[in-house]
Amino acid sequence: MDRYAGKKAVIIGGTHGVGPAIVKALPDGGAEVLLTGNDERNADAARQELGRGAHAVRPDATDPSDIEALGRLVEEKLGQVDYVHVDGGLAQRLISVDR
Hints:
By secondary structure, this protein is an alpha/beta fold. The protein has a single domain (8-86), classed as Rossmann fold, CATH 3.40.50.720. Helices cover 36% and strands 18% of the residues. The protein contains 3 helices and 4 strands, in the order βαβαβαβ. It has a 4-stranded parallel sheet, sandwiched between helices. The N and C termini lie far apart (59 Å). The mean pLDDT is 83.
């Protein structure tokens, strides 16, 4: 299927949660994808599974220099971007103790 043929996409948080499903659908439809994830093993696995149409990187979203570097990398690898999906976040478990 060529639904996304020639399209370029950036998926922030593409290696965990719902991100991988989105990442897989886009190259399957013909898009080139750059995805991020905070776990190097997951990024490597995504890179290997998706092949040539995907670029996986592990920037630190809390580091401004990493964010700037990500912007430069997106421009270098993809040029103009058609889709951006932000699926990154931080989950914290709060434990309440009744006394």
